[in-house]
Amino acid sequence: MKKISLSSPDITDVERKAVMDVLKTQTLSLGPKLQEFEGRFAKFAKRKYAVAVNSGTSALHLIVRALGIREGDEVITTPFSFIASSNCILYERAKPVFVDIDEETLNIDVKKIESKITKKTKAILAVDVFGNPANWDAILRIAKKHKLKVIEDSAEALGSSYKGKPCGSFGDAAVFAFYPNKQMTTGEGGVILTDDPKVEEACRSMANQGRKVKNGKWLEHIRLGYNYRLSEIECVLGIAQLKRVNELLRKRSRVAKMYDAKLKGVKGLELLKAAKGTKKSFFVYVVKLSKQYSRTQRGNIISRLAEQGIQCSTYFQTIHLQPFYREAFGFKRGDFPIAESVSDRTIALPFYNNLKGKDLDTVVKALKSLL
Ligand SMILES: Cc1ncc(COP(=O)(O)O)c(C=O)c1O
Questions:
Q1: 48 is catalytic
Q2: In this chain, where does the modification N6-(pyridoxal phosphate)lysine occur (predicted)?
Q3: How far is the CA of 155 from the centre of ligand 1 (A)?
Q4: What pLDDT, on a 0 to 100 scale, did the predictor assign at position 134?
Q5: Are 302 and 347 a contacting pair, CB within 8 Å?
Q6: What is the pLDDT of residues 108-123, one digit of tens each?
């Protein structure tokens, strides 16, 4: 049986050659390719500084630390995301304060943020979920009014824009992530973007074991640090992908449009829409089952598709209902009803740049017949 996978990276001979070439050099970490990747990325993202690290999670963790978020502080965030956007707050023993989502955009509901602000609130960490930009105007306005920092988790939104400005350019600091299912990949990797030289210096130093950024000695450590470095091998992959980024995004958008056209009007399905004034770059292609379907039925549909070789997934299971969060914080069903209702009905379909039309047709046909 032919398998149609959920995601697949778009790697060509250009990337393969770049990796082979760097392997012929003596510098496999902290070399010129890191600088080149960061320089190119900052330019692409329209930010002053880019600090490349070994994952999106590491990038978020360093931002939380660099912004001085500490034990007992509260950070307002969304429960409808990948777990890392909340775990990064826990790493510093701060508290994620969840706010339910907007049913249309699936992003944090900005109308519900202010009621959750307390004296302990230090930041808002918003996510551009599935590449759909959050309501940045409102988030920045609330943050300014209450003197809060803004962390932009754009891990899924490379190439998206909000009112003409690219995602990743709004917060005090932002991240993109480069796991192989993302719009571009370095295998594993992430990047911090900021215009603040202090945040840049702190993140760069912490990513490299707390060494001084300039004129430091290898065995001198001026602050608590980590090994969150991105190797030269990953950086050349990133450079090659970044040079092709318009092509990568175009191909992704083409596949999304094909799904849109074939699934439009299908009974039992709701297609996700980009919010007004935004341009969405697709991370995953997610459809929502209509409210008549239960979580169990959604699970059955995914299992039956899997039996036919079609790999789908439940993007996202809400963070507050993850076993660890339930146990540690006592969250329960009903705490964030909109996020839960959406999360119970979403299905991510196979989605990648080189998904063939006939495979996409197979997915659509199988899904329709199960509905
Ligand atoms: C919204 C969001 N934040 C953070 C991350 C973490 O990135 P990484 O897997 O590179 O650690 C991801 C990755 O899937 C993500 O989707």
A1: no
A2: 182
A3: 6
A4: 97
A5: yes
A6: 999 999 999 999 999 9
CATH of the domain spanning 13-240:
3.40.640.10
CB atoms within 10 A of CB 233: 18
Task: Specify the ligand 1 atom closest to the Cα of 128.
Answer: 1
Cα(51)–Cα(117) distance, integer angstroms: 30
**Residue with CA closest to ligand 1 atom 7:** 56
Helix (H) or strand (E) holding 126: strand 121-127
Look at residue 256 in the predicted model and tell me its pLDDT. 98
Architecture of domain 245-369: Alpha-Beta Complex (3.90)
Q: What are phi and psi of 313, to 5 degrees?
A: -150, 165
> Closest Cα partner for 289 from 342, 350, 211?
342
Whether the CB-CB separation of 171 and 150 falls below 8 Å is answered with yes
* CA 78/CA 127 separation, integer angstroms: 7
What is the position in ligand 1's atom list of the atom closest to the CA of 81? 1
CB 239 within 8 A of CB 40: yes
pLDDT digits (tens, 9 = 90+) for 73-88: 999 999 999 999 999 9
| Distance from residue 332's CA to the centre of ligand 1 (Å) | 24
Distance 234 CA to ligand 1 centre (A): 17
Q: Using CA atoms, how far apart are residues 320 and 86, in angstroms rounded to an integer? A: 9
User: Which residue is catalytic, options 33, 95, 149, 182?
Assistant: 182
Segments in the chain below pLDDT 70: none
pLDDT recorded at residue 274 = 86
Protein residues with CB under 6 Å of any ligand 1 atom? 55-57, 81-82, 84-85, 127, 153, 155-156, 177, 179, 190
- The string of DSSP codes covering 151-192 is EEE-TT-TT-EETTEETTSSSSEEEEE--TTSSS--SS-EEE
Delimit the domains of the chain by residue range: 13-240, 245-369
d(CA 240, CA 40): 11
Of the candidates 67, 43, 31, the one whose C-alpha atom is nearest the C-alpha of residue 196 is 67
Residue 53's beta-bridge partner residues? 190
For the whole prediction, is pTM greater than 0.85?
yes
